[in-house]
Amino acid sequence: MDDAVGVGAEDGDNHGDNDADEQLHSSSEQSSEDSDDPGWKQDLYESSESSEDDVSLVNSFDGSGVATELDYHSSEEDCLKQGKRTNDRGSYKDVDPSKNIPRGPPLYDSRGRVVLSINQQFNDHVHFRTFLLDYAIQEGFTMKKIKAARYRMTYRCSVESCPWRVHASLSPCKTFFILKTLFEDHTCQVQRSNKHVSATWIAEKLGDDIRSNPNMNIHGLEEKLKDLYGLTGLCRRQIYRAREKALGGSYESHSHEFKMLRVYANMILRTNPGSVATVGFVAGCRPFIRVDGCHLKGSFGGVLLAAISMDANLMHFPVAYAIVEIENGETWAWFFNMLKDDVGQHLEQQPWTIISDRQKGLVQVVSDLLPNCSHRRCCQHVWKNMLGKFSDNGLRDLFWEAAKATTVAKFTQVMLSIRARNRAAAEWLELIEPKHWSFHAMDPNAKMEHITSNFVESFNAVVGATRYKPPVSLLETIRIKVMDLIYTRKVICERWTKTLPPRVSLKVDFNGLRVGVRLDEGHCDCRAWTLSGLPCVHALACINMIRANVDEYVSPYFTMNAWRACLSATIHPIPSESLWPVHPPSDLLEPPAVKRLAGRPRKHRNRQAGESRLVTIRSATVTCSFCHLKGHNMKGCPKKRNKAEGTTAPKKGKK
Length: 655
What we know:
Layout: H1 18-33, E1 42-46, E2 57-61, E3 67-69, H2 76-81, E4 121-122, H3 125-139, E5 143-148, E6 152-157, E7 165-170, E8 177-183, H4 199-212, H5 218-229, H6 236-248, H7 251-259, H8 261-271, H9 276-284, E9 288-295, E10 303-310, E11 316-324, H10 329-343, E12 353-356, H11 362-369, E13 374-377, H12 379-390, H13 396-403, H14 408-421, H15 423-430, H16 434-437, H17 457-464, H18 471-495, H19 502-507, E14 517-518, E15 523-524, H20 528-532, H21 537-545, H22 560-566, H23 617-621, H24 638-645
Parallel strand pairs: 9-12, 12-13
Antiparallel strand pairs: 1-2, 2-3, 4-8, 5-6, 6-7, 7-8, 9-10, 10-11, 14-15
Helix pairs in contact: 4-6, 9-22, 10-11, 13-14, 14-15
């Protein structure tokens, strides 16, 4: 063969390759006829037929006929002197190929592309096979396996007439793989729809991109595979499985981790005795929690329930979270019962204030289990329900003015304005008690000025990228993030020297207004000081006038002592699953039966009134064939609908 880049025969009696020997002789004879060409080069690998453990030599001939022995080979005796353990088929577990092994030619070029060349070295047969698979996909051809074992591997192009062929086997000291035979040229046509591409391969190559953008659709992944690897015509179901693997693993991993939930709970109790988050909540947080649930997107679905509070620095503080099968009254009752077991003794001293979106069964559960607690409704959801019912966007400013009113007089005045504009909307609002949605009627003991649940969205944003993961991985990811959150804030807390935390210090500012203020009682006629716990603008004006220290008039919930108490405990790490103690089969939790609904699984929730529509790639790029405008198709074209109804506006320039 004239186009042979390198040829060779494999070493040993059992390692011999008759095909390679024949190609070696034929190529050598033909090359000798062309020896007049000074640029001719060829690598020959001569093996001893006496024993498979004999030392093999590789000679490199250049055009001048000078032979030099390559320096990377060593005998088995030398390997044993270096502490390498071998057997007749090679042992890889006790060998570190990065030590005392001269490296061969590089495996990648300056652009990161895979390259093949004679004398390249690999850790073992798995490393060589994975590397060869990447090369075949990159070059656009498929391979056929000739020999595949732990000590030798031979592949050729799947096209019979194509001469491409590669062979690699163990080194003489049996510690690493060497590429010994390579016919590099192809005569076959490039294939961009490669059968070697699997869901596992795609998940490995695009895993970081998928995890950074979990909502990337199949079309986006197809375009990325085409740009990076030139792959086209891939099965969309295969890409879908790759995305699922990259986000959370396969069904088997979800099933395995579901079984380990009870064991994981025992490890938490061993490494973190007691509830660290509960200790911080009781010691340094206000008696205020926000409860919410978000749906999980793993193989078994489920809902993640969470209770979030706020620390003394006005930042969210996770109190408790749990995975349940569905969201209903029964699961919420179980969640609150578990929470009462941890901090229930403090309810008698300081009743809680709970804010929620009125999830399924939650209102009845709170009234039954926590009768002394005040229950706020998220005003953002109240407004969306009101907008969806009456479709009057002009009520927005009036509604929020009534929700933020701090006095009865102000609230009454705004409600009269709402009634004057839309009587039905005012009557609908009057059906909801003011203590659930208007700031002036809420419990002042909570010292919380939030009337929406937006502060918990930062926690949901952290969880959002992990909702595809198996249950144990999801819980462990949240635990690590909370552990890091507490440690980071603790470092800031230790370095802060002022009396008030950083965010509270920024809020203590004032603008001059005229109202009655009683500093000794901590009261202002506007009631903002009483409700929030922080001096209002009127109180701040009085404090500055008498040159007093504003720190003395702030609620104890907003001091550095409260912040330090909130961060006093530490969440300890949990060892890897391989280091967990042996557990009996009774501790394994069988996964639930998977319920598959008809049709394609939904990825996005229904949008409520007033929420912006989710813009997808298709809605942003589709062009109407009737009016040639982007954003809609011909079926939903308003111009076509108006034309059909006979209401088309006259064109400009015509009467």
